[in-house]
Protein: Flp pilus assembly protein TadB
Amino acid sequence: MNAAMIAGAVVGLGVYVLVRALFPPRPGLAARMAALDAARRRDLAEPPAGPPGAGTPGRASSPAMERVGVLRARLGRELARFCESRGWKLRSVRADLAITGRSLEAFLATKVLLPAAALLFVPLIAAYFALLGLGSSVAVPVWICVLFAAVFFFFPDMQLRQEAQARRQDFRHVVGAFLDLVSMNLAGGRGVPEALMTASNVGEGWAMHRIRDALANARITGQTPWQSLGRLGEELDIAELRDLAGALALVADDGAQVRKSLAARAASMRSRELSELEGRAGERSQSMLVAQLFLCAGFLIFLAYPALMRVLAS
Structure:
């Protein structure tokens, strides 16, 4: 009995550590602001960089972690080559990775290593079942670990899709503000390329930086700004950027038509964003109502149970 309790405690501790590793707690606003201030003070206080061979002792990672990182990167590269040899394009995954700033190699390595880590628990679960006296068969522990491995295999996809959806929503919001800025610059007498570049230099944030880099690359490579915006929309799977590129390609010669088109497009994007927010608010209100109904039903059952048992006993 003591051995079974100890084995159960060890398994529970391992599951708890695994869940904490997969779902780390999010720091609060105060903790993030404190970390940002500490990073700024450290950057201001650190001495100038030395020769290329000199390193910072406090920031050097351990050799074991470096070897793990090298093996993970090598596994990711091999998996990426395997996908390319099979002809798997993975367009949606690449678009989600591009907007979240991750690499395909790291994503593929994570999808393989997480299920492999779940399968390593087969001997531990089998030993736990044996201590409980449930038999020495490994079929049930294997199926349990296979189920967890399947969940862990699809977990990176779900996490990536949710993060990409949130970042696309932020990007659409930035595109709406960008269209208003371009329309105001066009009203001031600037041309379309100058208006696009000036509007991109106004705002900050990762989305505006991506638009600014795309326009700067278009100037370097000799492409039109709307072609570069369309390519960015294809890379990040942002339909609003693709539509904007098509609209600018059609009416780029007429400044008045461009201004009217951009203003109408920005207004429609704001209206759609407002309707989506209202829809999400309605869904949350309905979910809260359902939760309240379940709570009331449970309370009524709690009140009626003693009387019902007394009636049945008599």
Residues 166-261 form one domain.
